[in-house]
Amino acid sequence: MGPEDVDPQEPLPRLSRDGGIPLHAQIRDLLRRQITDLPLPPGSSLPTEEELQRQFGVSRSVVRQALAGLADLGLIRRQRGRGSVVAAAPVLHRQLQRAGGLDEQAAAHGQRLRTHVIAVEPVTAPPTAAEALGTPRAWAIERVRYLEQVPVAFMRTWVPRDLFPHLTPELLEDASLLALMREHGYRPEGGPRQVQAVAADAGLAHKLNTAVGEPLLLLQGVTRDVLGQGLEWFNVWHGPDTVFDVDAQVTMPGTALAPDRIQRLRALAQQLESELASLGNNSR
């Protein structure tokens, strides 16, 4: 047997048959740990259905349910003539210097993100978020982003209720929050961000389908419009299969612009665009 195959004769832990956790879920989780903890390279073969039946002492339908669960998680591919093989983990690429547009960034790599909204609740924003938004009256939004059925990011976002009074989970399901802001007449421009490595607690591990203590990348920051109005304060925890691409530039001494000056120039540019558009309409 080559190193690319899982040994079908290797003893696996016994199943609990007390009626608590379904047998197929126990088998799924045992095989998942084999895949993620070894780790096995993409293309590695899993034991056949018959071998798993013998090892676990269960029916073929139970084994097929377990394998279907692994396929739903994006961990295996079921191939005709080869049985089940370990799938290549999807990798999410995002540009650190680009604000928002995560769907567009994924699409540029031929990928499609799916959004599941966990909650949209009216809250009093924590002090840091309230300062960034200019108000404590906020919506707290929790979402999980999926890539090929694999959870790759968990988002916790605060948005001013007075600017967006009618947010609902239905509006945000599989939708872009920044696109919704544009529909309400606000133009997200960006803002300061920071990235740090953190360990997954039990809640994050459950949402991102990873182990407690697994290193995650936490992106924190604020998104403002062209006039400096805070539109969102966010924390985004990225799973281990996220790559941040950075386009580094060399800045000559004395050429850098202060952030407040950049903000004023953007506001001036927007004002000029508006006045030019008004002049154009009046000349018709």
UniProtKB/TrEMBL annotation:
Annotated segments matching region Disordered: 1-20
Q: Does the keyword Magnesium apply?
A: no
For this UniProt record, the keywords arranged alphabetically read as follows: DNA-binding, Transcription, Transcription regulation
Residues in domain HTH gntR-type? 21-89
Q: What name appears for this protein in its UniProt entry? A: GntR family transcriptional regulator
Specify the superkingdom: Bacteria
Q: Which SMART domains match?
A: HTH_GNTR, UTRA
The record's annotation in CDD domains points to:
WHTH_GntR
- Which Gene3D superfamilies does the entry link to? Chorismate lyase-like (3.40.1410.10), Winged helix-like DNA-binding domain superfamily/Winged helix DNA-binding domain (1.10.10.10)
